[in-house]
Structures
1.
Amino acid sequence: MKHFQDPRLTLGGLFLTAISILFINTSIQIHLLMGISVLYLLSLNKFREAIVYTSIYILLWGLIYVFPSRFGDVGVVIMVTSKMMPMVAIGTVFISTPADAIMLAGHKIRLPQAIIIAICILLRFSSVIRQEMHRIAQGIRARGLLPHWYSVILHPARSYDCFVLPLIIRGLRLSTELTCAAQFRGIENSTSRTCIYSIAVTAKDLIRTVLHGIACVAVLWFGRNL
Amino acid sequence: MIKLENVIFQYGQETEGSGIHNISFHLPPGSCTVLCGSSGCGKTTLLRLISGLAPSVYPGELSGNIFIGGKSIFDMTSSDKATMIGMVFQDPRSQFFMPNVLNEIAFSGENLGLSPDNILSKVKTLTAQLGLSELIDRDLDSLSSGQKQKVAIASAMLLKPPLLILDEPTANLDSTGTKTLIELLHKIKQDGTTILISEHRVHEFLPIADNFVCLKNGSIAAKWTQSEFLQLDCQKAESFGLRHPESGFIDSQKNISAAAKDLLTIKEISFRYSKYAPVIEQLNFSLHRGCVTLITGDNGAGKTTLGKILCGLLRQKNGDILWNSEALSAKCRRLKSYFVMQDADYQLYTESVGNELVLGRTLTNQIRERAYAAMELFDLTKYKDRHPASLSGGEKQRVTLAAAYCSEAELIILDEPTSGLDVVNAKRVAEFIQLLAHEDRSVAVITHDDLLLRLIEGRVIKL
Amino acid sequence: MLKTGTNKWTLKDVITLAIFTVIIFVLLMIVMVLSNILLTPVGAYFASPGISALLAGPFYMVMANKISKRGVVFLICTITGLLFLAIGQVYTFVIYFIFGVIGELCMLGQDAYLKLFRNMVGFLFYMVALSAAAFIPMILFREQFLAWYSTVGTEEVISTLIQVYGSPSGILITIALTGAGTILGCMIGQRILNRHVKKARI
């Protein structure tokens, strides 16, 4: 059985990082927190994500150091974003956890069944809704209603109606159809739930979580005077 | 297995649809029954009642009793339904809850708390039985319609429910996909599962169906055994609103007039439908003015992609497309074309049929007259003030065809216009398609529907 | 179409809420990305909640009308917060959760979700939470934030930061723009409900 880290542990790590970020006051501390997040990713074999986030982080900080005042408003956003990066990196772990594992974790902490069902739909339908929007856009072009890219600016009300109404109708139809399908999948059962993946806490998970916690606290405590 | 006693049902105010007027019948365990009838006969409603979707999801007034395996459908909990009934719907997009095949098939077991080893063992057995083992790690979005259909059936069968219900399962399948489906259902039936299918393409199920129940206006109009149904001739079948293998044969030759001018010339184009599909190469053909061209082929052959390339919604990888013998960019082709999508919901934007036909045009007398003429021709006059979304599937299809008629497009492409339609509505659509071509326009129809291929005079391009 | 009596959520209500929340969230993301490109990032901070509200208003109105039960605002806020949590935005999740509770308290009373004005209030809490996720931490942890930013940014950048995220005028501008978008979006949503959803009996 394939194993994933219990989403509750991941969330714990995420919250701890978020709280640490609130209380840091030097740039070295944020670099250390980012380093901790990258090590966290590496310990979960997420090598590609570790490289991507490290590269983005270095790029952002490169911009800050090399061009400290050139970017104006954008500089504000670059700084704000760079501060969020350690959290965003750990968020990747959470979002790559399979939906059924997240649902099992939710069941274990006695989340309301409505939220567990909603989590399942959210994770599945984000991509479906994007496909629906694409089909609606194709439908508009196929009928020749907004033939040019600037037609949206020339006819804002029509553009609005042509996009919003089909999406509302599709949303309502999808809701009904999905409800019908859900009736036969036992989705409303709240007495017991399992998952084909294991989210049992392993020694590795425990060590990772404890080390992550210690590292964050250490950065806050010892890093404050750096 | 299924027992209905004096069932009467009328939808509430919020739902459109025909009711059921006092139906009683009994389906024995292990049998396969096909519900059939023309559009609006009540077969969808009956299916909803048997599966418990009405009145829970589709509110209405119900009287009578419905028993599944000796238990009243109204006394069943969510878990009971999951273990007693497997249901497969027409549209695969809205019945999957997980992103990949393995998780989707395992989902019901996880919801009911079965042990992971038990679930994985069941999944392994099921995927081997249904020929899905190679697809187990694939994303659902990358699968073809036929493959998605198989996954939907596997997901429904994980808990080995004694009853499997399928709602128009062949609507999105080609002939190969339909044959595969029949073989699959045959295996499931051999395991003792009772199967109930609602369908228009009824004859495809002759190899496995034990009974055929035909509905009309909410009541049972006829019941046939397999051998009795085989005896039905074309005229008799069509009188019940059923498709027949001989429906639609016309005596006249399918000749294109030598004087028909080329509108679109396709030279050596190549394209690919998706990452997993083969490349279509060196395609050469022409679309003529005043003629209908039928583009056919199996699911996944690239018919819809070709249609979108022809009208400029997509670009081909190589090759040329000439318009009136001159090169024309995809964008310019798009301005002269009209593509009617399979699902009309994506192309209806206004609150009345009348407004829908003139949408996007400055309202002059000429355009108003044309809209009225279109409503007359496509039999929509009585729906002039109706909201398009409140119409049935066939009626919505007519609205999109009428809108195409009202447009100034020289090339009109229709994607599966008869999907899910009964024989009467399919014949009407075929007439309307011929109408569209009569004004010196070129009409291309993408279809895998054999009935439509027989009904329309036109060239056939097979991918 | 008055619904009285039961506040018990059905499976259909939950699924409708989830689907429409996803639609609204995807719209929020698209507007955020596009407005960051077309307006300046600071302009995007001020304008994108209002623009999002204009686009998302009809979806909220249809959903609220269809479900019409206690808990819509709380759940849409919580679920959106969870979506932000999934991409690592912890503060946004906490703010959405809190705004969800307050917004739901404002929706107490019978048939609140069938009334235009009450829905505007509920939806306003949802949309303001988006920018509140930026300005509330700035207000509550001002000293720490300024201390950190001053080690990396110039004075010019710091003053922009304070002006945008930490000043009363900055906060009022973003709330006002969001409010305008919410009012318009909900009004258009009501029109769509009357002309389309109810007429077509979907």
2.
Amino acid sequence: MLFFETTPLAAALDAEWVFPTAECFHIVGFGIAIGTIALVDLSLLGAGLQRKAAARLLKATEPWTLIALAVVLLAGMVLFLTDPREYFLNLPFRFKIVCLLLAIIFNYTIHRRVVLSERAPAAVSGLVGAVSLMLWSAVVVGGLFIAFFPKGF
Amino acid sequence: MSLTSFARWLAGREWAQDFAASSYFYPIVLGTHLVCIAVFGGMILMTNLRLLGWSLRSESISDVVARLRIWKRIGFTVMISCGLLLAGSEADKYYNNPFFWIKMTLLALIGVHGLVFRRSVYRNTAELDRAPSPPRQARLAASLSLILWIGVVCFGRLIGYYETPLLLLNAAAGSSLTPR
């Protein structure tokens, strides 16, 4: 990380407009990525949307989720690289990254399988939908708390 | 009462001061605001993509608009409530913030957008479904909606970057001190 700080890229990221711009992409991106996943979750839960619509919803939203996720991750890396040491030491940041990895793995394994299976029991579907919503919410809230924690925690 | 004195009065309320002073309330309410943006964002995107004819083509426009309506209303209500708490607790600062007013203008335009396209698009979905491809009105409504909402989110974030000039802060506090 110390090495990175001596590179020209680190200097370029120091420009005043970089951070706010990356944040805008980050927020709009997660709005779309998590929002499209939440739609599928709500139908898994049978809340307002039908359970049998989940598979069709997943297929319709999947490409948009993926594009938005790529934007979020890229913008997130820019944000991280503006001050890697500070972020790395930040407790909410670590919590967020763990939740993010779990959320992504969960999303493309268990979540996907249950959504596409027609025979998953309602209790399993509901649980998977709820876990997905909670994991992604934890990522958002963890990310927010990065800014609210004193330095060095 | 002028808007300035209203903002000052609002920020002076006990709940607003408690809220602004607490180190927990602000991030928690802001967190809820953000989670709602995420849930709400997906709904807005998918409705608009359906109106554009870019996604969810297997569902009818009527179905998409009708089924998401309740969730959009819930999300919108929670989001606005959190937003009112956030802005209300520091109304005197927000009052001087140009990004806040740009965001409010965009939100007002979203209201106008809803009214303008209500008859031709949002309450006319059965008619739209009968057309072989989404009519121009529907595509226009969807594009404008996407642009306006992205604008709201971006300017919402930028609010945090504006620093009130010291002169204005002193004026708001009724102080005769001028910045050095």
